[in-house]
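Example record for the data management plan.
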Amino acid sequence: MFSLFVAFATLLGAHRPEGGPFFSCRDAVGFPPGTVATYGGRMVVGETLWMLDASADHPALLSITGPGTSPARRPVRLEEPLDVPNTGLARAADGRLCALSASDKSLQCFDATAKDASVRTLPSRAQVLLSMFGTLAWVAYEPHADRPLVFLEKGDGTFAAAEFVRSRGGPTLEDALVANLFICGLASSDRIPCWFLDGSDLRRVSRAGKATPIRLPEAARAASSYPIRDAAAAEGGILWLVLNDPPTRPGRRAGPPLRLMRLEEATGKFETHALPRPAQGILRADAKSALLLFRDGGAATCAEGGP
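Corresponding structural encoding:
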């Protein structure tokens, strides 16, 4: 397993939460800024972490196969632009890696060597592409209540509605579409966190498709209309959450993602840590640390430890 150990290095933003241990993010266990120009998505297949750089000029697949290694970069030739930042990255039943096109109506799929992409049409428009326990899934745009929202690929390449979530309604078409913005984070071996973007319904979904509510601490919920930027399940019942700060401008639903929360799902105990710079997402996580991708295109491991 990709070890998220903490090396002796320069501390960035090290601090001690009240009553808690020091916490810091260390660039020495990650990769430098500028490595990922436009983040499109990530997934884990076996021991390999895959990332998509959805840059319009130089799209590429990046992979990391072990601790302390720099990402290997493979340029990708696309048939259509990608839907940044909702493209996602998932492995299809035929083994190809897929991302969501800008039209929201098709996928672009390529093998691990990142050869020319082929276009695959979806049954309807998709919000985002998901990787759920190694299975390709997508979230539909849905303006009506109590309809299927997430669709999972079957072995024959067709899609079936997931049972763990149904759509919500709203007073207007626009309100309903916004209410049904939905996404899932990074899975552990036995569960994956999923949530509506307004943060009102965070849940863990098992491999069997059973959903269990997770109470989001008020410290996370109160700051923003869209509190969760990304989430990752880790072994031992630990959930990592990248949280958005309060909006910096009137009319915006969320500010920059500058906080990292470590939540014990069983007890509700949590710690919230300030990040040294805005985060883009969680690439890996274990019970003690999380590998974060930052908006500057670099990554660092954030964990307990300090002077």
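Summary line stored alongside the record: The two ends are 28 Å apart (CA to CA).
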